[in-house]
Every structure is written in structure tokens, then in C-alpha cells.
Structure of Murein L,D-transpeptidase catalytic domain family protein:
Amino acid sequence: MVYNFFTSVFLLFFSLTATTPKPTETAKTLTLAKVGVVSETQSVYNRIKLHSASMPQFNVFEKAVIGFKHLKEQGKIKKDIITLIDFSLSSNAKRLWIIDMATQTVLYNTLVAHGKNSGDEFATAFSNASSSNKSSLGFYATGEIYKGKHGESLRLDGLENGINSNARSRAVVMHAADYVSDNFIKAHKRLGRSQGCPALPAALNKEVINLIKDKSCLFIYHPSQNYEAASKLLS
């Protein structure tokens, strides 16, 4: 009886130690999985860059893809298109890209304005508050087209609470603006600014907003530690 008891205890202990992964093994597995995701994203980035005159930095693209995949899984976006705006760049640069993830091509790369209280040539301050006249960072779903004071405009729904969730009530939309042009930059040494809207060149506005309307992903980036710490889509 004693022999059988100790034999049973030994076999139970052996079974538990043999099947329960060690913490180091678990961490290693998670690390390898993460490397696999990064490698896949890097491969997609390299393929797109190979046939594109311009691309955002990889770290910005990677963040956009992370949020895009989460939102696709949640059903909050439907199209395989990412509109990416990098507000770390000068407003004199073409800092908006529209990327077709299905065909892995850049469809547009153009100028885009930031809010007048976000900064002059460079955007440095962001807000979700009404009447702030500042841009808001983070992930959005594009909405419907309507005709407003700027002509055809595209409504935006901010998908991150406390970060850009007031976009619709603030009337933060994509619209055309004459101050988004190379001529304005030549005259003023910087692009014109909006009341918080990501405003587009007048010549491209109609075709761009018709392309990305109705539940595609918009990501507005800036290397703000406050944003990245608060964003659940990037955590």
C-alpha cells in the first residue's frame, strides 16, 4: 500500500512537471510569436516599398497595421485600405499615404493639414476637446460623404475613447482646402492649417474621400508617449 501511494505521488509530480511549461519557455514562445508578426509586417512593408516612390517609416506603418488588424477583427472597419497620416513630419512634406493592403500598393501620397492650435509647420499638440482647434491622434473609421461649407466632405468617427472619440461632434472631417497646396507653402513657408480637420488638396479631395469612405481605417500618428500609453489598440 505504501509503495503504491508513493508511486502514485511520483507519477503525478512527473506528469505535472512534464506538461506544465516553464516560465522561460512560455516567454520564449511569446517572443517567437511576436517576431513572427513583425517579420510578416516587415515583409509586407518591403513589398509595398519596392514599388512605391514614398512610404512612411516602418515603425509608423507597423503601428497602423496593428490597429487595422484589431479593427478588422472587431468589425469596425470593412475595407482593406489604410489611410496613414504622420504628424511627426513637417506640414511641407507629403505626410498622408493611402495604402491598399489587398494589392499592397500605395494609391496616394499627398499633403494634409493639421489644426491651427496643434502647431505651425510641425504639429506638436493634440486634443479631443471641442473648440480646441487641435488635431486628434489615433484610429478612426471613415463615415459618409456630405456637402458642407467646404463642399464634399467625409465624416470621421474616432474609435479611441478620450483620444479622438469627439471627432464627429467636433465636426472633424476630411475636406478640401485651398491652403493645402505647394503654392501656399511657397508663399508662407508652411502649409495652411485647419480647425482640427485633416484637410486635403482641392484637386484630390473628391477622388480620395470617395475611395476611403464607408468604414475604412484612418490612423493619425505622432510619437506622443501620452497617446501610445492610452491607446488600447496599440497595447
User: Anything to note?
Assistant: The CA atoms of residues 68 and 153 lie 23 Å apart. The longest strand covers residues 138-148. The radius of gyration is 23 Å.
